[in-house]
Amino acid sequence: MLGKESGGSTFDLPEVVLQVLPSDPFEQLDVARKITSIALSTRVNSLESESSALLAQLAEKDDLIADLQSQVDSLDASLSDTSDKLSRADLEKEKLVKENDSLSNTVKKLQRDVSKLEVFRKTLMRSLQEDEENSAVAGAPLPPIIAKPTPSEDDALLSTLRASSVQSQFSEMGSSFAEDRETESECHFLFLACFSTLTLPKIKNRKTDQSKEEKNKKEREK
């Protein structure tokens, strides 16, 4: 229709399109409007489909981001918990190291005290043994011979020196115990009582026996 009437200006349209176009210009504009509407609608539908697909992908990415953020938060909490445990472990380690040092010092002090107590025990046992031997000798019957010079003064001096030596050793240990704990002070008083109970009566008995022996010898000399 349009091709026959216009003759020349086809605007490079295909022959098939020119044949179906109406000859009325207004009708042609109406057809063009409908074609434009169809094209725009098709394009809009295509863009909406692409937008829906992109929105779906965006939602998936958002879900993935939320999941990753949750994992990050969990890892942060775990890291914080681990850091707290590590800090507590470091503090506990320092505390154990200090306790170990304190126990080592206590063990060393106790070893020194045990050594001193062992020396004191040996000295005390030797003193008691000598006292028993002297008591046994003093209690034996004297032979009927001329009285010899008695070493009473020497024995008294030796007894005094021995008692002074024991007391000085015990005083040294007492001063060492006074620097330690309260339990070591109790040990000091305990051994002081032991010394007073066991040693001093022996010394007094020995002096009494010596006095009796001197008196008997003087009576025999008369």
Number of helices: 5
Biggest sheet details: none
* N→C terminal distance: 187 Å
**Strand segment count:** 0
SSE string, helix = H, strand = E? HHHHH
- What structural class do helix, strand and pairing data support? mainly alpha
What average pLDDT do the residues reach? 77
Beta-strand percentage range: under 5%
Shape: rod-shaped
Low-confidence stretches: 1-8, 142-154
Residues in helices, as a percent range: over 70%
Structural overview:
With 222 residues, this protein is mostly helical. The chain has a domain at 105-139 and 150-221. The chain contains five helices and no strands. It is rod-shaped, with a radius of gyration of 60 Å. It starts with a helix and ends with a helix. Mean pLDDT is 77; it is low at 1-8 and 142-154.
Offer a quick outline of the entry.
The protein is 87% helix and 0% strand. It is mainly alpha-helical and 222 residues long.
Features:
222 residues, mainly alpha, 5 helices, rod-shaped, disordered N terminus, coiled coil, At4g15545-like
Detail the topology: elements first, then pairings.
Layout: H1 2-6, H2 15-20, H3 25-139, H4 152-178, H5 182-221
Helix pairs in contact: 3-4, 3-5, 4-5
